[in-house]
Amino acid sequence: MEKGTATPLTKPLRCIVKLGGAAITCKNELEKINEENLRAVSIHLREAMMSGEIVDMDWSKRPEKADVSVDVDGISDQITLESSNFVVVHGAGSFGHFQASKSGAHKGGLDQSLVKAGFVATRISVTSLNLEIVRALAREGIPSVGISPFSGGWTTFQRNVASADVTTVAKTIDSGFIPVLHGDAVLDHSQGCTILSGDVIIRHIAEILKPKYVVFLLLTAVDEEGSWRVVNPAPKSMNEQVEITVAAHDTTGGMVTKISEAAAIAKLGIDVYIVKAATDHSLKALKGEVKGKIPDDWMGTAIRFMRK
Amino acid sequence: MEKGTATPLTKPLRCIVKLGGAAITCKNELEKINEENLRAVSIHLREAMMSGEIVDMDWSKRPEKADVSVDVDGISDQITLESSNFVVVHGAGSFGHFQASKSGAHKGGLDQSLVKAGFVATRISVTSLNLEIVRALAREGIPSVGISPFSGGWTTFQRNVASADVTTVAKTIDSGFIPVLHGDAVLDHSQGCTILSGDVIIRHIAEILKPKYVVFLLLTAVDEEGSWRVVNPAPKSMNEQVEITVAAHDTTGGMVTKISEAAAIAKLGIDVYIVKAATDHSLKALKGEVKGKIPDDWMGTAIRFMRK
């Protein structure tokens, strides 16, 4: 690690939130945002981290309007814009996936024209998604600031994080902003380049900034049929030190992978919640209302380190 | 300086190019790109730094089309995508200016709601311009990669650069890409935040990466009436160590400021050319064709360090 190994925060980090790519984009349409879900998630995030008046912080041109649509002069200093310390990290969904998989940018090899062009194309796609998410959050009054991992000096070695500027993330939080990072195409010291996933970014930031809890907002974390149940104590087949509250009939490989990523975070002593985006359950998780005893009617997956 | 004080490049940096905000945007219309100029400048940049076939590297959705419009499968490994080492830095023009000036984000004071909101709004605006410029360059076959100074850990102290991750800029170049930076809203250690101009970024990168020459592409660097003349040797009123080839009837304060910024770069021993964007003169400057004796018919301003 070149940078960011010791980065104290003035105020502790409350939460890292992952916005799953599939939850905020339309999976089957190239570069299409799921506006409804993104708006709902943005409102939930504001409710979880802020109180008081809503100040629209996206003063850029909107598609339907020729000029600024925000009443900037109405922003008085009576309004306080305090937010608790959150970090947002989002996936790519239908942004970046086509470009990366078509070019093989995740496998490296920048001497190949297709990989090099695909690397450029992938970064264009994921940064355009980041911009749209930052704008959506800013419109809801969240002082969001985009931090692109490539720009922030995140690199990998054999696809593990080799360098990362977590100092900038910490300074951004300390200045009262909400950093918004994303899965990105980055340089890799062994194979030239790769794709750094949002989940790996979260684990790395969690290790250094020690949030109280981490929430993964996914498209389908909960079986709508209500087939989830609380498994307590932890099943012996899982790591014994980690308590997992998990669905009985979870068949998706993606979910298992997600749980093992999350388990690595839980082992740091950080509670992890995996929950369907834009639901009452996700709002509860974001607010930290499932931090202690999990309510009986809460639907989602909780992963916790068991102190012996 | 926390980072990036010694950053060697495998191959020397040939040129840093500033795309003036006024040259690539429409000054009097909020967040409007000057498509014609941007396209012409992109073509010139490609001609100056690359040869061979053009590979479109912007695979994102275009406004007029629902799906990918690039023939990705046609990108064969017979095509070489070598470019000489350039860095592009652009200004803000009609992006960011409204947001920054309306909020006073350049004067700092993040405890004020208006400044905080304006900081968020400014970053949204300038990063959306950066994305458009990266896309325009990528469409012309330039392997451009956006690096946002805020994300790259650029901060200021009393509005001078306090930290900057030039290492990432260097690694990007060494990996065969063209970094595209921009004037940005950044954190300031004395006043909370400020606006870091593209010109200051260029001077800082030039100090560390020592380009052979620097080109400022402006909207109106040349008086169309042809009232420019070569002043040689340098007038006594200027720094005697710097030779300036300057217009006789330059009355713009902006131009004088630009020249003094440029003079600071020239003092590092780096030739600086200030020239009207999207002209034959700017193409000559970008190609380095005015590096030695300046052609009689070349219109622009050259600033050079005179070795005694």
From TrEMBL, chains A, B:
Positions contributing to ATP binding: G93, G254, K258
Residues involved in substrate binding: A92, H97, G198
GO molecular function, one term: ATP binding
Any Pfam family hit: AA_kinase
Reactions the enzyme catalyzes: isopentenyl phosphate + ATP = isopentenyl diphosphate + ADP
Enzyme category, top tier: transferase
GO cellular component terms, A-Z: cytosol
Keywords: ATP-binding, Isoprene biosynthesis, Kinase, Nucleotide-binding, Transferase
BP GO terms, sorted: terpenoid biosynthetic process
Coiled-coil portions: none
Entry's family note: Belongs to the isopentenyl phosphate kinase family.
Full protein name: Isopentenyl phosphate kinase
